[in-house]
Specification:
Shape: elongated
Structural class: mainly alpha
Strand order of the largest sheet: 2-1-3
Number of domains: 1
Helix content: 55-70%
Radius of gyration: 25 Å
Distance between the termini: 66 Å
Strand content: 5-15%
Number of strands: 3
């Protein structure tokens, strides 16, 4: 029988390998965090664009107690509620409420439940009610529904003016851009 003696690798070769593996793991984590910040920054820029489009639409025609207005074949303005969106088919939207303008800017009624519209409404609600930037968490569908009703109620409040709605949309767009810049800077 032949005995083979195995000697462990010297500590000087094991330690650098561990250090390299740890450094590689830390670099992967750093890059993953950077990717998340970049993606969120890009999303915030898109949210700001939606809010800009929404503000332009409200400036052109603000609606209370409905989502959108369009012109019928006779040129009369017609108000459409959330339950009558089918009436918009083939028509040009000429006015909207706060929520309708965000929906329109985010791609229209087909995108009303999409991530971009949802996050844009989340930010707008946060600016209105908390005076703060975007929340780090995504609200549950029930919470988001309450926030949308709150935004709708704010839009439809007696004495509300179109310039207040445009102001909220503009402030929300600014907050989105500031937060995107902060993320880009790695803060």
């Amino acid at each position: 029988m032949v005995l083979q003696v195995v000697t462990p690798a010297p500590a000087s070769t094991v330690q650098p390998r561990r250090a390299r593996l740890r450094a590689a793991r830390l670099e992967r984590l750093r890059l993953a965090a950077q990717d998340r910040r970049s993606a969120r920054s890009a999303e915030l820029h898109r949210i700001a664009e939606v809010l800009d489009q929404a503000g332009d639409l409200v400036e052109g025609g603000w609606v209370q107690h409905g989502w959108f207005t369009y012109r019928d074949d006779a040129g009369r303005a017609r108000v459409v509620t959330a339950h009558e969106l089918h009436r918009l088919a083939g028509r040009t939207v000429v006015g909207a409420c706060l929520v309708g303008a965000v929906v329109h800017g985010g791609g229209g009624p087909a995108e009303a439940r999409g991530q971009l519209v949802g996050r844009t409404l989340d930010l707008t609600w946060s600016v209105l009610r908390r005076g703060a930037g975007p929340d780090r968490r995504t609200p549950s569908p029930a919470e988001r529904a309450v926030q949308v009703r709150d935004l709708t109620g704010w839009n439809d409040a007696r004495g509300r003016r179109a310039d207040e709605v445009v102001g909220l949309l503009a402030t929300s767009a600014t907050v989105a851009r500031v937060e995107a810049g902060r993320l880009r800077a790695g803060v």
